[in-house]
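Title: Comparing notes on inverse folding

I've been comparing how different people in this forum approach sequence design from structure. To keep things fair, I'm posting one structure and asking everyone to reply with a full sequence. Here's the target:
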């Protein structure tokens, strides 16, 4: 049996990194940065964007719940106390609260227009029907510097935000013979 000796290089400790080690480090750093940026974006959202996102999520969930359970759901706007409550309305017991949508700091309810009727004070209800339809609603909020309006599409329940005090848009009557 023959034995071959392998010469060991005297330069074993070269002091550098291999390409594989560098790639692994770059990969780990990029993963950590990605998670940090996602958390930073979530924590740093404020103002109109946070308000629009919170309302959009709540409206989408309520619409889906109304359709899937074949029951009406409502959002109660308590303009006097500046609260936005989520729940159901029963003929016998009235409004049953199931949650609340918190307004972003710096914004408060000015008035709400539901199906063409303005509510500057008191309580009013935006209804989510089991068919997927939603009441035509315009929510007016006042911020530190200006007004902000949230418009709810009655067919899709999609919410859009507009700077300023947006009035409800209506179609002019047409002289249609049919």
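Reply #1:
Here's my take.
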């Amino acid at each position: 049996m023959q034995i071959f000796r392998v010469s060991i290089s005297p330069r074993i400790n070269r002091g550098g990194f291999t390409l594989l080690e560098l790639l692994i480090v770059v990969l780990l750093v990029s993963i950590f940065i990605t998670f940090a940026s996602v958390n930073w974006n979530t924590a740093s959202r404020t103002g109109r964007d946070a308000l629009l996102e919170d309302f959009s999520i709540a409206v989408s969930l309520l619409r889906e719940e109304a359709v899937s359970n074949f029951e009406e759901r409502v959002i109660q706007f308590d303009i006097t106390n500046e609260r936005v409550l989520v729940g159901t309305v029963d003929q016998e017991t009235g409004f049953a609260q199931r949650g609340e949508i918190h307004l972003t700091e710096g914004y408060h309810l000015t008035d709400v227009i539901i199906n063409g009727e303005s509510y500057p004070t008191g309580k009013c209800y935006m209804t989510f029907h089991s068919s997927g339809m939603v009441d035509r609603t315009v929510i007016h909020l006042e911020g530190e510097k200006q007004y902000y309006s949230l418009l709810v599409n009655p067919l899709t329940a999609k919410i859009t935000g507009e700077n300023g005090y947006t009035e409800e848009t209506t179609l002019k009557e047409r002289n249609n013979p049919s």
